[in-house]
Design a protein that fits this description.
Number of strands: 14
CATH class of the largest domain: Alpha Beta
Distance between the termini: 19 Å
Mean pLDDT: 95
Largest sheet: 12 strands, mixed
Structural class: alpha+beta
CATH architecture of the largest domain: 2-Layer Sandwich
CATH topology of the largest domain: Ribosomal Protein S5, domain 2
Order of helices and strands: EEEEEEHEHHEEEHHHHHEEHEE
Bound molecules: (3R)-3-hydroxy-3-methyl-5-(phosphonooxy)pentanoic acid
Oligomer: single chain
Strand content: 25-35%
Low-confidence stretches: none
Number of domains: 2
């Protein structure tokens, strides 16, 4: 590293969407067709160091010790280009990123990764941007990453354009001690990534109905969080996840992310609910099942999930804080 190197490190948690983002109205800017609400996942994180270095001929990306080229590097360079342009610098950067959870299996590794990258890159370039500006920058890398920037329970408003499409905290982490027990049913890479998935969303005849009903689901979710009403949260997040997967399954080509064990977990959660155990499932663009519950039930639910055939592991997370520099 030369004396002119500018470097910064940032930390961001992953997040799980309660009301999902699926489909863009502007793919390049990642402007969504509907708003979304999520909970940050404390304990599942990415730590990223960005170093702008005079000696580098091109941007470099290293994730968990492996050098990455191709599309992933292009997405990282797109963020760095915005930062370079805003800061008036031409230096290429080395990006070193570490996740503490498996990538590419529907645990939104891109959310934590692009949130940490946006914050580290802006800081390394000397930009003193506020949270909304960092959230907007993270959004360009991955829509859900906009939601990993603010703390706790977060809403990403669809906005009217680039300037006002960013995420804000709607309740701090301490507002409601919830937990996420993630039943891992496969840790291989997903077959169709979410960038391609968003592009297929309008080919489903169900997408228009899902989008038209989104303001209603968002309002129910907002109120459930404000009032700490677990039963109404459970109903709305399961409905929202089922609606998104119905769109996925009816896209052309169709996207089927569920495995037999995914359905087994969903069935068990519904049985536990009937037996009075507070738990609710939600599934992203992968086969793993996120089971949301009060923190007081986390150990019990994680143990129950481990007994289900086809569940290879269970990760747990509490409500996480904001992305921050290290
Ligand atoms: O941010 P992306 O492009 O990886 O899309 C995320 C899509 C879902 O995880 C399925 C839903 C969401 O809102 O996080």
């Amino acid at each position: 590293m030369s004396d002119n190197t500018r470097t910064a490190t940032a930390f961001a948690n992953s997040n799980i969407a309660f009301i999902k983002y699926w489909g863009n109205r502007d793919a390049a800017l990642r402007l969504p067709v509907n708003g979304s609400i999520s909970m940050n996942l404390g304990g599942l994180y990415t730590r990223t160091t960005v170093s702008f270095e005079p000696s580098l001929p091109m941007d470099e990306l290293v994730i968990n010790g492996s050098e990455i080229m191709g599309k992933a590097l292009e997405r990282v360079s797109a963020i760095l280009n915005v930062v370079r342009q805003s800061a008036g610098i031409a230096l290429r950067a080395e990006v070193l990123s570490e996740n503490n959870f498996p990538t590419g299996a529907g645990i939104a590794s891109s959310a934590a990764a692009f949130a940490a990258l946006a914050l580290a890159a802006a800081r390394a370039a000397g930009l003193t941007w506020n949270e909304s500006a960092i959230s907007r920058l993270a959004r360009i890398g991955s829509g859900s990453a906009s939601r990993s920037v603010p703390a706790g329970f977060v809403e990403w408003k669809m906005g009217s354009g680039n300037e006002d499409s960013y995420a804000v905290s709607i309740a701090p982490p301490g507002h409601w001690p919830l937990a996420d027990c993630i039943a891992i049913v496969a840790d291989g890479h997903k077959s169709t990534g979410s960038t391609e998935g968003h592009a297929l969303a309008p080919t489903s005849p169900l997408q228009a109905a899902r989008v038209a009903d989104a303001p209603r689901r968002l309002e129910i979710c907002r109120r459930a969080i404000a009032e700490r009403d677990f039963s109404s949260l459970a109903d709305i997040i399961q409905l929202d996840s089922d609606m998104m997967h119905a769109v996925m399954m009816t896209s052309q080509p169709a996207l089927f992310y569920w495995k037999p064990a995914t359905l087994a977990v969903m069935g068990n959660v519904r049985t536990w609910q009937r037996d009075g155990l507070p738990a609710a499932y939600t599934i992203d663009a992968g086969p793993n099942v996120h089971v949301i519950c009060p923190h007081s039930e986390m150990s019990k639910i994680a143990a129950l999930l481990r007994k289900i055939s086809g569940v290879s592991d269970v990760l747990t997370a509490t409500v996480g804080g904001a992305a921050h520099p290290l």
